Hints:
Radius of gyration: 18 Å
Structural class: alpha+beta
Largest sheet: 5 strands, antiparallel
Distance between the termini: 40 Å
Number of strands: 5
Number of helices: 2
Oligomer: single chain
Helix content: 25-40%
Shape: globular
Order of helices and strands: HHEEEEE
Amino acid sequence: xxxxxxxxxxxxxxxxxxxxxxxxxxxxxxxxxxxxxxxxxxxxxxxxxxxxxxxxxxxxxxxxxxxxxxxxxxxxxxxxxxxxxxxxxxxxxxxxxxxxxxxx
Length: 104
């Protein structure tokens, strides 16, 4: 009986865990673009880079946009596709613009 309850408990939680992992990038390191390519992407978009780091397997750019707003941009490491941009608005509340990731 305990084994059945354990399995049912796992199955109840498992779908939520899969949904939470949606923002992660699962790409072998051999397929990653170099950090310099991420910096070029930022420059092409008029972003000033404060920091480029790796978060949940994705590149994350912290900096500011052309208007001087603070931004946090999540970038797919293999395709350099922008996955998400979070802006810090004038009233300091974060605003997110999710991008359609397609098939990754």
